[in-house]
Amino acid sequence: MTPVTELRDAVEAAVGALGDGTPARARPTLERPKQAGHGDYATNAALLLAPALGAPPREVAERLGDELRERLGPALDRVEVAGPGFLNLFLADRWYAQALAGVLDAGEAFGGGGADPARVVNVEFVSANPTGPIHVGHTRNAAYGDALARLLEFGGHTVHREFYVNDFGSQVQRFGESIQARARGEEPGEEGYRGEYIEDIARRIPDAATAPVADVARRGVELMVEAIAQSLERFRVRFDTWFSERSLHEAHPPDPSPVEHAFDVLAEQGRTYRSDGALWLRTTEFGDDKDRVLERSSGEHTYFASDIAYHQLKRERGFNLLINVLGADHHGYVGRMHAAFEALGGAPDELELLIMQLVQLVEGGRRSSMSKRRGEFVTIDELVDEIGVDAARWYLLARSHETTIEVDLDLAREQSSENPVYYVQYAHARISSVLQKAGEERVRRALAGEPGDVELHDAERTLIKKLLAFPDEVAEAIERRAVHRIAAYALELAQTFTAFYRDCQVVGVEPDVEELRLRLSVATRRTIARALDLLGVSAPDAM
RNA sequence: GCCCCUGUAGCUCAGCUGGAUAGAGCAGCGGACUUCUAAUCCGCAGGUCGCAGGUUCGAAUCCUGCCAGGGGCGCCA
Known about the structure:
Layout (H helix, E strand, L loop, with lengths): L2 H17 L10 E2 L9 E3 L1 H9 L3 H16 L3 E7 L3 E6 L1 H14 L13 E5 L11 H19 L3 E8 L4 H14 L13 H8 L8 H22 L6 E4 L13 H11 L3 E4 L2 E4 L10 E4 L7 H14 L4 E7 L6 H10 L7 E6 L2 E5 L2 E3 L11 H18 L7 E4 H7 L4 H19 L1 H9 L9 H11 L1 H10 L4 H20 L7 H25 L8
Helix pairs in contact: 1-2, 1-3, 2-3, 4-16, 4-19, 5-12, 6-7, 6-8, 9-10, 14-18, 14-19, 15-19, 16-18, 16-19, 17-18, 18-19
This protein binds one RNA strand through α2, α6, β10, α10 and α14.
């Protein structure tokens, strides 16, 4: 129970008392008004209640104000009815001091937990083809998937990070052929992979020129996966499982292969049929616009079949929420995968396919397309070399995953020193410095003390309110899978702290005041560090 | 043709499950360093929220149509 939820409960109770059971049109809001002078918190409850009561909104607001005064007592300084019928609440300084105490008591857990129900989540992301290094598009996917996983964990879920390795099928064959061609000093074919890294790999496979292509391909994929894992590690992304697509096609007698097993599950439910020599899945029964092939007339399995088997296996492994972070070029696949998931007997809300919009690469003011086959792309390592992990992660996470972003490496390089991430980190370093100046002993005493009865500065009230908003921000970010909200919040919190720092001397003022300001500094420092951690960005003590 | 995302300040983007005077960063202009860290702060300037209708006490936000940009519509992966 946070101070803000207590307030919200009081408002809802007051609404209940007035409304007498008549349902309001919607849940009343309790928000921090943008406009100073509109109170610390404001509610539109009266506007929503007025039609049901048949009374003018402003009059309803007056009555609501009386109810709230009674419920909140001395915590409430005063209420004002404003505009068409908003009710503005002005809280007493004592309320603020108590609220801050609540934040400090929550400690590292402040803003987290509360997942209901807590789920066992498998977050599958990146899953780039292991036929080349990963580029900025995958890097965005990596940053987002990892931050989402961090958020879900912080919210109280159990999270497993997974990378699906597409080590099966024709592109792997082509990959092997390209390596072999290079090993023999030849050009890869028209459809082959032409990037420089292919030569590297060819050099690292001793018998690449003569070994069977399948072996070369397998070894090439292994090397590539190793390299990808290293790059991602450097980017602070670790996977719990690297899942091989090929393994889905391998049977371990007497058990059938996972793909055959999935076919059996589907057949039992009567979801498949044969036509034109192929095996089809009736995805149309679940809203897809056409049925899909699982096994071609040639007897080969489609990629879709692998994926179905993979999802079935994830279910059997005990996850009750499967999240896949996909590039926008996969959106056509969402409908059929959901259909297949239901055909397997999965509940619709246990599979979530999140579509990330793409990264456009810009070079010399012109859009260029990223092609792995032609070897034209900016790799994760180049990006990190140029601007560093913190700036890269911030840059990729500060925008909604639903919007296309442009990456101009020249511009990114040029502007990286202006990246807002440094502003946030600087605020954190600055607080560390202030606390250091105060000394451990004084900080410890301040934290051990009771919230005093000092009159607050506006900047202090604003900062406390900003801190109190954190749990809601986290909850909303999780709810909407909107990681960028955390970045926006971190920046705002840093700005709010900086204003406080400007207006309020911390160390060396009256003991009561210093104590409160030290407490406020500690709470802010922790919250900034937490927000940065959720994004996978470091929180330095000095800059 | 159908489907998904986007269109908000010069640029990059927040705000979008309806609320009061639409925000931030960068870029621009003018100011502030005997400080608790100037990687900072203060001020100024900058907007037909793509366009047109509709819903309502109230629309950047919801609905419809149109325009523009990106992506997708395989027995490819």
